[in-house]
Specification:
With about 750 residues, this protein is mainly β. About 0% of the residues lie in helices and about 45% in strands. The protein folds into 2 domains: about 375 residues, Methylamine Dehydrogenase, Chain H (7 Propeller); about 350 residues, Methylamine Dehydrogenase, Chain H, CATH 2.130.10. The protein is built from 1 helix and 57 strands. A hairpin with a 4-residue loop joins strand 34 and strand 35. The longest helix is centred in the N-terminal third of the chain and has 11 residues. The chain is globular and about 75 Å long.
């Protein structure tokens, strides 16, 4: 038992760590000037005759048509080039415009989610679609609600998912598009249903995927857009399909991807072949369009899909050149337009795409300057409008992680790259780095929190840098540190400083830190809002200095708001946040002091955002906690309040990310499961998996971040895959990677 534990703890000392920051506060992000030359789009959305992009600092830029204030710049003037309208934004979605009344654009509004989960709205509001309790048109953003993780805007209604999986809707409800049974507009959010994983609002209808993979639809159905085999309006959700991974609702047609990568389409008159079936026949039920599809976007009367090999395929109406095939001829079958495409977004008459190299391309109608090239000329071929601006995400979906990574090479050098607005890279700057840069020497261990870094040197010293807004660096005030003023500002430190001696292991949680000394003492500090410090009380006001809470500890792991510890006798203890059952004690009650979870034989544990994974002495893997995306790996999407067995034997090491997990078995196989929108599972798709899938061989160690993954193979090479915002994969680009990509060699493994 002791020998097995020591071997695993030695493996755990591998010097690689990363974190894609999903649930952090970005109020401290670097300000941007008002020049659009700093645009590095993290998320883009095409709506009606307007376009939107978010830069790497969270600034929202808009351009194009603005008759209803939909750009959010305080005016109704159209913009031929991007203008900055909002900050601290992580996601944006633009409402759908009716093709028959597009020249008026009476209903056109915009929704944005900020990093704190707050939802904001602006533009047209005749149906109450802004959700602010009025029908007043807004030319500036107004706050609507809190705790939002996804939003979708229809023509005059809006739907949003909160973090508990509940679906809310508001705005026009003339044809049942809000789905609660009655008709009549709602100017404020009302709850529709629970356990929703994804939602898409069409022109006057809504599509939603529940956590069990079922697809539901309601609202207007004149053209068969609901896919239930009829043209009957539905006021309540009706089930359409099973095993659905993604759905996109347009004006009058819908596209859905099943978990095996098959694309289905239905609805619309199909006059222009927007269903992609090779004819112009309408379909009231799903028809198969193509295979190996990773993502799809629909709007107006054309559709666009990205296949798993990075190919962009477009079809349908082409009056303005929005198909992008150099003609103005409509196409009723998919046409391959570009390669190496990471994301795509479509609007009524134009299309946008981000390539794997981070470049943004756009084509189609340009009447109102929606192409952003400073002209009103239509383009029937993709045109690069932000060459060198390194666009990293093209979608109205979730793009909120600001990530960073680190690795230690065989000579003890610490290298880091990615987001750096708060100094978390430790290179003495606040500038993002898109390739690995050397930060420090003689490093033995590194661990990342949401926005801070902890390092153990070869002589057992603990060093720290990054944000200290919650005391996670172990000092009350970073401005009091004995480092030059140039290296810190407010509560940020961008250069390493020493915390304590004789440290054997460290784990950085969300905004708290746990350190294990060489004599088995556990010291902990930082935020304690959920009791994650384990000191028996919750401190809400002031951050704490390092406090000793336990002895005879063998291993530790700090998650978002909970902490796990393995004792010398092999027992597993937990404390802190427990809303998803991540403590494993059979309840959802937060614990302010350590409670025993497993009595013996635990040799390794990894705490994620809301779930936990552990390895037993017999090599079996157990997991528990939040499971909305299948991150527990038991084949379900139900939260598990107690440990469940996932793999029977042979597991050597495991890592828990935000909503995915990764494990290495004794034969060197890498297994991943859970959320996969950005390719963080590394299996060549963006389809989530609720059970482990084998993605690599000859792997020695893995680390799962928020939405990306790093792995070291037995030859010492570092591989990366998943989300690449802010260059967190370290390949010098911003394109998401759905398969493992080699980043550097001679990475340390001990």
């Amino acid at each position: 038992m002791r020998k097995s534990r020591n071997i695993l703890i030695s493996v755990a000392m591998l010097m690689i760590s990363m974190l894609a920051l999903t649930a952090c506060d970005w109020d401290e992000a670097l300000p941007s000037n008002n020049s659009n030359e700093n645009i590095m789009g993290l998320s883009i959305s095409a709506g009606g005759s307007s376009s939107f992009a978010i830069d790497s600092y969270g600034n929202l830029w808009a351009w194009g048509y603005n008759n209803r204030g939909q750009l959010g710049d305080g005016t109704t003037e159209r913009r031929l080039k991007p203008v900055k309208v909002f900050d601290d934004v992580v996601s944006v979605t633009a409402g759908i415009v009716d093709e028959l009344t597009a020249s008026y654009q009476v209903f056109t509004h915009t929704m944005a989610i900020r990093s704190d989960g707050s939802l904001w709205a602006w533009g047209s509001n005749g149906g109450g679609q802004l959700g602010d309790g009025t029908i007043i048109e807004r030319h500036y953003p107004v706050k609507v609600m809190e705790d939002v993780i996804q939003v979708s805007a229809g023509s005059a209604h809006t739907v949003a998912i909160r973090s508990d999986g509940s679906l809310w809707g508001w705005g026009s409800n003339s044809v049942g598009q809000l789905g609660y049974g009655a008709l009549g507009n709602h100017m404020e959010p009302i709850k529709i249903m629970d356990d929703v994983a994804y939602v898409s609002a069409g022109y006057m209808y809504t599509m939603a995927i529940t956590v069990d993979g079922n697809l539901w639809a309601w609202g207007w159905n004149r053209f068969g857009e609901l896919g239930d085999g009829t043209d009957i309006m539905r006021r309540y959700p009706v089930k359409i399909m099973e095993n659905v991974a993604y759905v996109a609702a347009g004006n009058w047609h819908t596209m859905a991807i099943t978990k095996d990568g098959t694309l289905y389409g239905w609805g619309s008159t199909n006059t222009f072949g927007q269903l992609g079936g090779g004819n112009s026949s309408r379909s009231y039920e799903p028809i198969r369009v193509m295979d190996d599809v990773a993502s799809v976007s629909v709007a107006g009367s054309h559709s666009a899909a990205i296949t798993t090999d990075g190919g962009l395929w477009v079809w349908g109406w082409n009056r303005f050149g929005q198909v992008g095939d150099s003609t103005f001829i409509s196409r009723n079958t998919p046409q391959r337009i570009m390669d190496n495409v990471a994301q795509v977004a479509t609007a009524r008459g134009h299309s946008m795409a981000v390539l794997g190299d981070g470049s943004l391309w756009i084509w189609g109608s340009n009447t109102y300057g929606q192409l952003g090239d400073g002209t009103t000329i239509y383009r029937n071929l993709p045109m690069n409008i932000m060459d060198g601006y390194d666009v990293v995400y093209a979608s109205a979906g979730d793009g909120r992680e600001f990530g960073f990574s680190a690795a230690i090479t065989a000579d003890g050098g610490l290298w880091s790259w990615g987001y750096n607005a708060d100094g978390r890279l430790g290179d003495g700057t606040y500038t993002n780095s898109y390739e690995p840069i050397r930060v420090m020497d003689y490093v033995r261990k590194v661990s990342h929190g949401y926005n801070h870094t902890m390092v153990i040197t070869s002589n057992g010293e603990l060093w720290a840098w990054g944000s200290n807004n919650e005391g996670q660096l172990g000092v009350l005030n970073s401005s009091a540190l004995n480092v030059p003023q140039i290296y810190h500002r407010a509560d940020y430190v961008n250069s390493p400083f020493k915390i304590m001696d004789n440290v054997a292991h460290v784990s950085a949680g969300g905004t708290h830190t746990a350190a294990l000394t060489t004599d088995g003492e556990l010291w902990i500090w930082g935020t304690n809002i959920y009791g994650q410090l384990g000191i028996g009380e919750v401190e809400l006001d002031s951050p704490l200095l390092p406090s000793k809470i336990m002895e005879n500890v063998a291993f530790i792991s700090a998650g978002h708001g909970h902490t796990m510890a393995i004792m010398a006798d092999g027992s597993l203890w937990a404390w802190g946040f427990n809303a998803g059952g991540q403590l494993g004690d059979g309840t959802t009650i937060d614990r302010f002091e350590p409670v025993m979870i497993m009595e013996s034989n635990v040799v390794y544990v990894a705490a994620g955002f809301g779930h936990t994974v552990a390895i037993m002495a017999d090599g079996s893997l157990w997991a528990w906690g939040w499971n909305l995306s299948g991150q527990v790996g038991d084949g379900s999407s139900f939260d598990q309040l107690e440990p469940v067995r996932i793999i029977d034997s042979g597991v050597a090491q495991v890592s828990a990310g935000f909503s995915h997990s990764a494990a290495v078995t004794n034969n060197g196989n890498l297994w991943t499961w859970g959320f996969n929108e950005f390719g963080q599972l590394g299996n060549g798709t963006s389809i989530s998996s609720r059970t482990p899938i084998n993605v690599m061989e000859h792997v020695a160690f893995v680390s799962a971040g928020g939405n990306h993954t790093l792995a070291i193979t037995v030859d010492g090479s570092l591989w990366a895959f998943g989300a690449n915002a802010n260059g967190r994969l370290g390949d010098g680009t911003f394109g998401h990677r759905h398969t493992p990509m080699r980043v550097m060699d001679e990475v340390l493994l001990r």
